[in-house]
Amino acid sequence: EVKVVESGGGLVHPGGSLRLSCEASGFSNSVLSMNWFRQAPGKERELVARIFPVSGTTNYADSVKGRFTISRSNGRNTAYLEMNNLKPKDTAMYLCCAKTTNNYWGQGTQVTVSS
After folding, report:
1. Nearest to residue 49, comparing CAs of 77, 74, 83?
2. Do 47 and 35 form a contact (C-beta atoms < 8 A)?
3. How confident is the model over 23-33, as a mean pLDDT?
4. Which of 12, 46, 49, 90 could, after both became Cys, cross-link 70 (CB 3.0–4.6 A)?
5. pLDDT exceeds cutoff 80 at 75
6. Rounded to whole angstroms, how far apart are CA atoms 43 and 13?
7. What are the angstrom distances between the C-alpha of 24 and each of 10, 17, 28?
8. What burial class does residue 112 get, using C-beta atoms within 10 Å of its C-beta: 0-12 exposed, 13-18 middle, 19+ buried?
């Protein structure tokens, strides 16, 4: 059974930091990429960052470049999203998506940035 589980969200003040984790398991095929999306109320889901586990290549949305860092653990389908200098506009549900020949989504973890 495929499982994708996010953790690490919470409430943080502007300028603060959080580290999100995504653990994916149960795959019969290789995971091609690990992706962090976010969705705020009334807005479309957007890709925040992704990493290709084999090459280590990363991509970021312009809105988070220089503040967020995605990484992975070696030998495991686990991805992390280090978020620094958080802003109120970063408030959203953050969802992890593991892509093989299909897309597997977690339930999400809420990030709220507020003073």
Report:
1. 83
2. yes
3. 89
4. 49
5. no
6. 22
7. 21, 23, 12
8. middle
Mean pLDDT, residues 48-62 taken together = 94
For residue 88, the SS3 value is helix
pLDDT, residue 28, reads 82
Residue 8, judged by CB atoms within 10 A of its CB (0-12, 13-18, 19+), counts as middle
Q: Which residues 6+ apart lie within 8 Å of 71 measured at CB?
A: 51, 79, 80, 82
Question: Could you tell me how many residues make up the chain?
Answer: 115
Q: Give the residue-averaged pLDDT of 85-108.
A: 96
Given a contact cutoff of 8 angstroms between Cβ atoms, the answer to whether 84 and 17 are in contact is yes
- What would the two tokens of residue 33 be? 């990429």
